[in-house]
Each structure stands twice: as C-alpha cells, then as structure tokens.
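Work Package 4 report. The design task specified in the project plan requires that, given a folded chain encoded as structure tokens, an amino acid be chosen for each position. We show below one input record used in the internal validation round.
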C-alpha cells in the first residue's frame, strides 16, 4: 500500500489521559485535542488510538482499585469508553473537529471481509475530515484483556496495525516517558535519550524492560514491538512525552523530539 505523507496515527496511553489518582486528566486531554486539531488544520489526516477505558471506568464506578475480575474489567471498559468518547466529542468540537468511534477486536483485522470493511470505514471518515478514535473492544472481548492469544498486546500494537491499515506515513506514540533511553532514567541520572533508531535488535530490547506507569498495561517492550511492525512497512514511528501534546507541532516541523524509529 502506498503511504500518505499527510496521514498520521497518534496513540495515547492510559498514563497520558489519567492522573496519578486514576482520574481523568482533563487539562492534558484538552491540550491533546487542541494540538491534533491544529495539526489537522495544517492539512493532515489524523487517527487517534486511545487507551484508558478500563482505568477511566473504574474511577467513575468508584472502585477502590483497578479491577482484576474479567466481568468487572469489561463493565469498567463499557462505562469508561462512554466517558472518554463524551470528552473527546466535546473537546474536539470546541476546536471545530468531528469525531467517530471505532472499537476493534482481533477478528476485525484477521477476517478478510471485515478487514476490507474496516479499511473502507477509515477511508470514509478521513475523507470527510472526521477524526477516527480507536480502541480495543474490551467490553465484549476477553481475548484482548487477559488472554495469551491477544493480537494487539496493548494498544501500542493496535496503533501500528491501524497505521498500516490507514496507509499512514507516521505513527506517534505519546507515552509517560520522553522516549527510549540507553539506561533506566528513573534510577540512572546519566541516562541519555536515544534520538534515532535504524534497527531494532536484541541489545535495544534489553534497554526497554519494565513500564513507566502503574496505570497502563504496556511498557517500552510493547512499543518496540509496535515500532518493529510499523517500520517494516515503511512507517516512521516516534515515541515522545504524552504530557506535552504540543510536541506534535515540532514533530510535523521535523524537529528532533523523542525517539524516532526510521521506516524501512
């Protein structure tokens, strides 16, 4: 598939849209929506892949802790997805943008007919200047929540698959860390940010152990998996700090931000 230089996928993790207490970080979501709207006004098509439904739902349901039981996780996902879409719809509309929701499970990208329908839906939304907001369909699919057979392995992999589907030229993963470091920055003050990666190998994976947040399910390893898949299809992948959504403007301007994994 030919990649569109004007088509971008932005993925936000749970740690970007929630605060330390598990509540919604409305200020940061507002900044995110404003930045994406600004990028769209520059002539780009943007797809937003958003995690956070279970965490947001658990908070709204006033659960004492993140649910461990499957049925409670799925209930929290159902509640949280409504809350997230309400916020995205409201905030994006403040900046003159329209949104549409797409919830996916593995069948949608593995069964040929559903795969083709999904691609057509993305194209139709983007051609009409509507921002697709994508998440896993956690409220009905147990596979993606806690099965060993899960395809997406957190929304990082989902975002790579979506980028391939949409023919995007760039995947931007907003995380709770500035990018990939040569050591653990939380324990090593001398850790240096790796600004450019041409090849993902075993040595690089050893640098990516652990997760920077207790609110999400993924860590740097899942981001490397996603980057490996996307770059193999020619898509540039960039990991940067999610609490500075205005970095999107600098990325568009090709400034050195975060860690760039170069598409092959």
């Amino acid at each position: 598939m030919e990649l569109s230089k004007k088509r971008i996928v932005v993925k936000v993790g749970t740690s970007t849209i929630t605060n330390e207490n598990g509540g919604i970080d409305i200020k940061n979501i507002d900044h995110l929506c404003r930045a994406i709207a600004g990028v769209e006004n520059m002539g780009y098509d943007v797809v937003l892949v958003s995690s956070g439904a279970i965490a947001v739902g658990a908070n709204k349901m006033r659960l004492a802790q993140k649910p461990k039981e499957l049925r409670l996780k799925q209930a929290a996902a159902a509640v949280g997805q409504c809350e997230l879409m309400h916020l995205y719809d409201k905030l994006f509309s403040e900046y003159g943008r329209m949104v549409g929701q797409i919830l996916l499970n593995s069948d949608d990208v593995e069964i040929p007919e559903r795969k083709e329908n999904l691609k057509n839906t993305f194209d139709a939304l983007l051609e009409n200047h509507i921002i697709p907001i994508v998440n896993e369909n956690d409220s009905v699919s147990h596979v993606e929540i806690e099965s060993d057979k899960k395809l997406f392995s957190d929304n990082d992999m989902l975002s790579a698959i979506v980028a391939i589907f949409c023919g995007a030229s760039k995947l931007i993963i907003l995380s709770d860390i500035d990018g990939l470091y040569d050591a653990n920055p939380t324990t090593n003050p001398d850790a240096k940010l790796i600004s450019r990666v041409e090849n993902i190998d075993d040595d690089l994976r050893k640098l990516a152990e652990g997760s920077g947040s207790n609110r999400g399910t993924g860590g740097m390893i899942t981001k490397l998996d996603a980057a490996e898949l996307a770059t193999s299809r020619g898509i540039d992948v960039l990991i940067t700090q999610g609490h500075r959504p205005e970095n999107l403007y600098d990325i568009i301007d090709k400034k050195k931000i975060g860690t760039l994994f170069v598409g092959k």
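The longest strand covers residues 4-12. Validation will be extended to a larger panel in the next phase.
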